From TrEMBL:
Keywords: Signal, Transport
Protein name: Peptide/nickel transport system substrate-binding protein
KW Signal (keyword) present: yes
Matches recorded under PROSITE patterns: TAT
Subcellular location(s) of the protein: Periplasm
Main location: periplasm
C-alpha cells in the first residue's frame, strides 16, 4: 500500500507521517522533526507546519506550487548581484567536491528536491512524490512543462540517465555514498582483473537492473533494497544536479539546464557571469519557477583577505563567507551580517590502512592526546559546537550526546609505548580551503599532542593542491560541508567502499548500525540507535574532529532575500536588488 501525496490528497497523510504525529503528541518527537518527516513523506511544508501548530516561514509557503521563498516587500525587477566567491571550473556536477562550483551551477541546473534552511525538503523538479509504507519504493512525479534550454521538455528518462551515471563505478561520484543510492546497488564481479591473478575476482557495486522504473514521461519509480527515509533530502546533495542526456564534461562548454540562468562567461580564478535565459530559438523562455527578478549573477574571485574591503567599496554586493578573525571589520561596515549554525567541520583523519595508522593503538593515542573541548573557544569564541570524533553534530536531529572525551596524556603515552611508537613523528596535510581557521586547528593539535611525545608536522598546501590529494594522503585535515543529517555525512564518508571514504575505514558492524538508524522515526529510539553508530566510529579512532563551525557572511542592505543556508547553497530565484 502507498499513498500519493498531492494537493488533492493532502488530507490523507502517509502512515509514517501519522506515526510521527503521534510521537509528537506524546512528546517523543519535536514539532520541527515532525515537519521534516511529514514533508519527506510527501506532505506540503505549509500543511506540515499547520499540523505541528507552528507558523510557516516564508520559504515554507508557495505561490502556485512553486517551492522558492516568497520575495519580501515589493521586489524590483532587473539588476545585477555581484558576489565575492572563489570561481572554480565547472566540469562534471556529479563529481563536484566544492560547494562553490555547485553555486555557480545551481542557477542553471536544478534538483528533484530542495531543502530550505529550516531542514524541510520541498519538491523542485519533482512536483510531488509518494513512498510505500515500508519506505522501500519511492515514486516521483515530475512537473509538466519544465523546459531545457534547448527547448526539450524534462521527462523521466532524463532522470534515469542521471541516476545511471551516478551509479557507474568508473565515474566515482560521491552520490554512491548516499543512503538512497546505495540501496539501489548490488555487488557484482568486475570486468577488470585484480592485481593478484590468483586472488578472488574483483567486485564492484553497480545499479540493480530493477532499481529504476520509468512509469511514463513524468513518473519515475525507485526500488530500494532497504528502507530509506531521507531519499528526497539526498536529492538536494549538491552533486545530484540533473544534467541533460547530451551532457559531456566540461559542463561549461555546453551549459544546458532547466534553471532561469545560463553561463555567459567563465574565467576560472577570476569571474563567472550568469545571465537570465530570455528566449530559446527566438521564442520566449517561460521558466517553470515563476518570477525571477535578477538579470545577471556575477561571481568574482576576490582574495579572502580583501573581500570585505571590496564589499566596503561597493565592488561586490555580498560575499560567500568571511572568517571569524574579520568579524570586527565586518561589524564596522554598512551591511547585513548573517550568521548560521552549521554542521561544517574539520576532520584530521587517518587512513586506517596506511602506516602508522594501521595500528589502532597509535590512532587511539593520538586522539587521547587531544583536548577537543579546549579548541572551540580558541578558534570560534562566539559560537560553534564541539565535535567528539564521530562527525554527528548537535544540530543534527538524530544526534546522541555521548559522554565528553577527557584528555588522557598518560594513556596516550602508554599506548604509544605498547605499539613501539614512543617517538612518533607524523605530518598532516592541511589545505586552507576557507580561511586560516583550519591551520589554526592543526597548530592547536600540534601543541597538544607534543605533550604526549608526538611530533606533528603541518604541511600547509594551496587549496587546489590539497583537493588533488585529499583522498590519497595518509593523514589529512579535510573540511566537510554541512549535511542536514548526521546519517548522510556518515554514509558519504565512512561506509565501506564509498568514493568519499578518505579514511578507508571499513566496519560491517558500523554499516549495519547506520542502516538501522536511518529508518527509525521515534526520536528517542533513533537517538538510542545513533548512540551505537557514534560510539563505534569514536572507539575506532579514525579522526580528531573537534569543531563544528559557524558560517559568517554579509550582504548589502540593497540586496533582499540573500540566503543564509547552513550548507552555503545559493538559490537566487527570488533574490532581488534595489537599483
Amino acid at each position: 500500500m502507498s499513498i500519493v501525496m498531492t494537493r488533492e490528497t493532502e488530507m490523507r497523510p502517509h502512515p509514517k507521517a501519522l506515526e510521527a504525529q503521534d510521537l509528537m503528541a506524546r512528546g517523543r518527537l519535536s514539532r520541527r522533526a515532525f515537519i521534516r518527516i511529514a514533508a519527506l513523506t510527501g506532505m506540503s511544508a505549509a500543511a506540515a507546519y499547520t499540523m505541528a501548530g507552528l507558523p510557516a516561514p516564508a520559504y515554507a509557503q508557495t505561490i502556485g506550487n512553486v517551492p522558492f521563498q516568497n520575495p519580501d516587500d515589493d521586489p524590483q525587477e532587473g539588476g545585477i548581484i555581484k558576489v565575492g566567491m572563489q570561481v572554480q571550473k565547472m566540469d562534471d556536477p556529479a563529481i563536484y567536491a566544492w560547494t562553490e562550483a555547485s553555486n555557480q551551477t545551481r542557477h542553471i541546473l536544478e534538483y528533484l528536491a530542495y531543502t530550505t534552511p529550516d531542514n524541510v525538503t520541498h519538491p523542485m523538479l519533482a512536483e510531488s512524490w509518494e513512498v510505500s509504507d515500508d519506505l522501500t519504493e519511492w515514486t516521483f512525479y515530475l512537473r509538466r512543462g519544465v523546459r531545457w534550454h534547448n527547448g526539450e521538455e524534462l521527462v523521466a528518462d532524463h532522470i534515469r540517465f542521471n541516476v545511471e551515471r551516478w551509479c557507474d563505478p568508473a565515474l566515482g561520484s560521491s552520490n554512491l555514498g548516499l543512503a538512497s543510492i546505495a540501496a539501489m546497488l548490488e555487488e557484482v564481479e568486475s570486468d577488470e582483473k585484480d592485481e593478484d591473478e590468483d586472488g578472488p575476482p574483483k567486485r564492484v557495486k553497480r545499479l540493480r537492473e530493477d532499481a529504476v522504473e520509468v512509469v511514463d514521461d513524468h513518473t519515475i519509480r525507485f526500488k530500494l533494497s532497504r528502507p530509506v527515509l531521507s531519499f528526497p533530502e539526498d536529492m538536494y546533495n549538491y552533486p545530484t544536479a540533473i544534467v541533460h542526456p547530451s551532457f559531456k564534461p566540461p559542463f561549461s562548454d555546453n551549459p544546458i539546464g532547466t534553471g532561469p540562468f545560463t553561463l555567459a562567461e567563465l574565467v576560472v580564478g577570476q569571474r563567472c557571469i550568469l545571465k537570465r535565459v530570455r528566449e530559446i530559438d527566438e521564442e520566449p523562455f517561460q521558466y517553470w519557477g515563476g518570477a525571477v527578478f535578477l538579470d545577471e549573477i556575477h561571481y568574482y574571485d576576490v582574495p579572502e583577505d580583501t573581500q570585505l574591503t571590496a564589499f566596503a567599496s561597493g565592488d561586490i554586493d555580498a560575499i560567500y563567507e568571511f572568517g571569524v578573525e574579520q568579524m570586527e571589520l565586518a561589524r564596522a561596515l554598512d551591511g547585513n551580517i548573517l550568521s548560521t549554525r552549521t554542521a561544517q567541520t574539520l576532520c584530521l583523519r587517518f587512513q586506517v590502512d596506511q602506516e602508522p595508522w594501521t595500528d589502532k593503538r597509535v590512532r587511539q593515542a593520538f586522539v587521547k592526546a587531544c583536548d577537543n573541548a579546549a579548541m572551540l573557544p580558541l578558534v570560534f569564541p562566539e559560537s560553534g559546537d564541539v565535535g567528539w570524533n564521530h562527525h554527528v553534530s548537535p544540530i543534527h536531529p538524530e544526534y546522541f550526546p555521548l559522554p565528553k572525551l577527557e584528555r588522557d596524556l598518560d594513556g596516550a603515552r602508554a599506548l604509544l609505548a605498547e605499539a613501539g611508537q614512543e617517538n612518533l613523528e607524523v605530518t598532516v596535510a592541511c589545505g586552507k580551503t576557507d580561511g586560516p581557521w583550519q591551520q589554526t586547528v592543526c597548530e592547536i593539535v600540534r601543541d597538544q599532542v607534543k605533550e604526549a611525545g608526538i611530533t606533528l608536522n603541518i604541511n600547509i598546501m594551496a587549496t587546489a593542491k590539497y583537493w588533488e590529494i585529499w583522498k590519497d594522503t595518509p593523514f589529512g585535515a579535510t573540511q566537510w560541508t554541512h549535511r542536514p543529517l548526521g546519517t548522510m555525512a556518515l554514509s558519504l564518508g565512512y561506509r565501506t567502499g564509498v568514493p568519499w571514504n578518505e579514511t578507508h575505514y571499513s566496519n560491517p558492524e558500523f554499516d549495519r548500525a547506520l542502516d538501522e538508524a536511518e529508518t527509525i522515526l521515534d526520536a528517542q529510539k533513533r537517538k538510542a540507535a545513533m548512540e551505537k553508530v557514534e560510539k563505534i566510529l569514536q572507539d575506532d579512532a579514525v579522526m580528531v574532529q573537534s569543531i563544528f563551525r559557524p558560517v559568517y557572511t554579509i550582504s548589502s542592505k540593497k540586496v533582499h532575500g540573500y540566503p543564509a543556508h547552513p550548507s552555503q547553497y545559493h538559490q537566487f530565484n527570488k533574490v532581488w536588488i534595489e537599483h
